[in-house]
Amino acid sequence: MTSTVNPSTPRRTDARRTLRSVADLLDAGLVTPEQAPELEQVARQYATAIPPAFAALIETPDDPIGRQVIPDAAECHTEAVEDPDPIGDDALSPVPGIVHRYADRALLKPLLVCPLYCRFCFRREHVGPGGGVLDDAALARALDWLRTHTDIHEVVMTGGDPLMLSPRRMRAIIAALETMDHIHTIRIHTRVPVADPARLDDAMADALDTTRSMWVVAHINHARELTPQARAAIRRVQARAIPVLGQSVLLRGVNDTPDALEALLRAQVSARIRPYYLHQLDPAPGTARFHVPIREGQRLLASLRGRVTGIAWPTYVIDIPGGYGKVPIAPDYLHTGADGYLRVTAPDGAIHRLARERG
Fold first, then answer.
1. What mean pLDDT is predicted for residues 171-181?
2. 118 labeled binding residue
3. Was 121 annotated as part of a binding site?
4. Which CATH architecture describes the domain 90-326?
5. CA 339 to chain centre
6. What is the mean pLDDT of residues 111-130?
7. pTM score, two decimals?
């Protein structure tokens, strides 16, 4: 949807209020009255939430920030390749709140609520205000499952966004995981540091303290998301000796140019965040407008080889539809020539033949 909102129109956003409805978006000047009927139809399927800190970054509705979070009429159109559960979470959930895809780790989803609702989310059929929090009984059952599966060594807390929990509830969950000798690593996957940085306050950062190996993985898609407030929130975590990794989704109109992707990676490194994953978009319903073909993604990433430090180089990955796991799809720099010699492509595109390997 190409917005006709006039970027010079004064914004009337309440700096204290999350935008949650078409009426809110109209009042903020982010959509037009002509768009409202179609957007009400979108709202019947998918939640909207744009916290004040994130809304303040939107310069125009179609800019790289607005595009991620402002609903679009195209979301009501589902293409043949799209799936409500594109990576097979439902089939791999032995009990509510748990997804077990890999032998040594499991996802724990204590809630299905987020600070903002990205229009490309692969869990968009499940997350929203009605998703709620696992009640005490359901959470106990999920923790019991982890307790009895001693082959699980890592728990990835996701959702929804686990930093939407209260610090008290977060401490209780981490304390329960600490009683399980086989759990040695805990990961928190979150959008909160950039979406609603004030929520990641000292109380929440303290709640993440644990005797286990704790990692925070922040979802960041554009360099402008790393505001001074977001960086301060991230530093609160880092100050407690918790490393922060970054993960991003390759998105059309957001970070699909060499300059935009380079700026994103550099911004993360400058904030002491190690870029971890660049995700190929999962084919959730109504997300086609964000799709970047894999070959284009490979060329895009290859264009940055030699241009940015290896510290900033993420692993480009795809979650195989159907729940078959995540695999790298990075550019391939090595191939075998007709003469049987290996050849490698240098960052400048030149091809070099290697000597025959020994042994």
1. 98
2. yes
3. yes
4. Alpha-Beta Barrel (3.20)
5. 44
6. 87
7. 0.92
